[in-house]
From TrEMBL:
Its main location: membrane. PANTHER family: INTIMAL THICKNESS RECEPTOR-RELATED, TRANSMEMBRANE PROTEIN 145. Residues 463-487 are annotated as: Disordered. Residues 26-147 form the GPR180-like N-terminal domain. This is Transmembrane protein-like. InterPro entries: GPR180-like_N (IPR053880), GPR180/TMEM145 (IPR047831), GPR180/TMEM145_TM (IPR019336). It comes from Brachionus plicatilis (Marine rotifer). Residues 181-402 form the GPR180/TMEM145 transmembrane domain.
């Protein structure tokens, strides 16, 4: 019911549903060989249904159905030798080439006249059988002609299961995964809300925490759009234009914000310092300008250069590969260097930063490596789902790990923030931890551990940290009076 309500709302925004795996369109082309659809069928349960019509004056047109190996062979030969229509047809056995003619009983064609115009209308169903899932490509041809016209409605199905019926085999599992991750992000969002309330009350809600929560919410919206789209698609067979693009846009913005937050934390911002140098902000700006431009190019390549005759994957484009390289090299290297510099200057926080470095080094590297493996070694019909699974799980793991590290609970000895948002800090008043040569490096960390147990207890009294500060202020005066009396 929830998916249906979401679908009704989305339909009001993007009203027309087109470009789907129930393909309904009209072909008008000057080419004599035209691809009109593709689908990845599983064995035995696959069904291809069609209803087509075209003017009688343009007969005879043909249905050509290639499976993936044949299709790749034709494309390769076409690039090498520029095949003509007849040569492309010869790559198929007769059982996969159908003349759309009333004289061919297997294709279900009949002549009819409407408003004095003669036409041929055809409808039939075909079952596909193969030893493994295969892509099938549907082509309309009329060799030697520069006028090909066809009204068509094609329906591709994989059984009757709601999670499979309208889905190409390379999309199996995406809806179920989206539902599971959506529920997980709802839980994380609720926990973030609880933690945020605690941190606001205790004046520890810093900018970096706000950026983290914004990233989580954007990822939640991304999964919501994906789930809503695939949910309605499982029932209707039609894709709503813009839904998946909007989902990926939310995810991209969320990931950019999350990476920005990680760089700030690595620099020690709101943890060991309340200001960054102007040159540091300039470097951050340049890095994210490059990153955002590359992300935008990946979008453009995947949309504008989309090839319907190829099994496409988001990270197959040069911009997609560049995005992986930038994140894995520049992003991770800068993150690691910033942490090393912060530990050197503020060893009081080294335990937190060492844990952060180890966990997020794995996070930075594992995602791009798995995506590159998926792009090059996973079978085509599994690539879309596996790539989606890797991408969404890596994002989830990053959000989950950071939430664990900053959780405002008494047992969390790694809680990095000790300066309240209400404090005014300068380089001289010692709000942020400073390391002296004779301090041993761990004094501030020990103090933080001592105070953290009382930090989040709900009480009307002042915190232990504040009490000890007041005590330290009064002790020197008492000591001085005692010395005067003894003299």
């Amino acid at each position: 019911m929830t998916l249906y309500i979401i679908h009704v709302y989305i339909t009001l925004v993007w009203f027309v549903a087109t470009n789907s795996l129930i393909l309904k369109d009209e072909l008008v082309s000057t080419k004599d060989w035209n691809l009109i659809g593709k689908f990845c069928f599983i064995s035995n349960e696959s069904l291809f249904s069609y209803k087509v019509s075209y003017p009688d004056s343009l007969k005879i047109q043909k249905f050509l159905i290639y499976y993936d190996d044949q299709w790749n062979n034709v494309r390769r030969k076409d690039k090498e030798n520029n095949l003509n229509c007849e040569q492309k047809e010869k790559e198929l056995p007769l059982s996969q080439a159908f003349e759309l003619s009333a004289q061919n009983p297997s294709v279900g064609c009949a002549e009819e006249t409407l408003n004095g115009i003669k036409s041929l209308s055809c409808s039939a169903k075909f079952r596909f059988s193969s030893i493994r899932p295969r892509y099938w490509f549907v082509v309309i041809s009329k060799c030697g002609s520069n006028d090909v016209r066809l009204k068509y409605e094609l329906e591709f199905t994989n059984g009757d299961n709601i999670f499979r019926k309208h889905f190409s085999a390379d999309e199996f599992g995406i809806l179920e995964t989206s539902i599971a991750l959506f529920l997980a992000y709802v839980i994380i969002s609720i926990v973030c809300g609880i933690f945020a309330k605690i941190l606001v009350v205790k004046s520890f809600f810093h900018l970096t925490i706000g950026l983290y929560i914004a990233s989580v919410v954007l990822q939640l919206l991304s999964i919501l759009f994906t789930m809503a789209e695939y949910g309605q698609f499982s029932q209707s067979g039609f894709i709503t234009p813009g839904m998946l693009t909007t989902s990926r846009l939310f995810q991209a913005i969320g990931q950019i914000i999350f990476l920005f937050m990680l760089i700030l934390v690595a620099k020690g911002y709101t943890i060991t310092r309340n200001k960054l140098r102007v040159i540091t902000w300039i470097k951050i700006g340049i890095f994210f300008a490059i990153y955002v431009i590359t992300y935008a190019l990946a979008f453009i390549f995947s949309e504008a250069l989309y090839d319907p005759g190829q099994v496409n994957y988001y990270y197959s484009s040069p911009a997609g590969i560049a995005l992986i390289i930038i994140k894995m090299t520049l992003g991770w290297v800068w993150f690691s260097y910033s942490i090393a510099f912060t530990i050197k200057n503020f060893p009081e926080k080294r335990v937190f930063y060492i844990v952060l470095l180890i966990t997020f080094t794995i996070w930075f590297l594992i995602g791009p490596l798995l995506i590159l493996i998926c792009s090059n070694f996973i079978l085509d019909y599994m690539r879309q789902f596996v790539g989606y699974l890797i991408e969404i799980l890596v994002v989830f793991i990053g959000h989950f790990i950071f939430l664990i590290l900053i959780r405002p609970t008494a047992e969390n000895k790694l809680f990095p923030f000790h300066v309240r948002t209400t404090q005014i800090c300068t380089s001289s008043n010692g709000c942020y931890p400073r390391h002296g040569e004779n301090d041993g490096g761990n004094k501030q960390l020990g103090d933080a551990r001592q105070n953290i147990s009382d930090l989040f207890a709900l009480s009307n009294t002042s915190s232990k940290y504040e009490y000890e500060e007041k005590k330290e202020e009064t002790q020197p005066e008492v000591s001085g009076n005692q010395l005067q009396e003894s003299n």
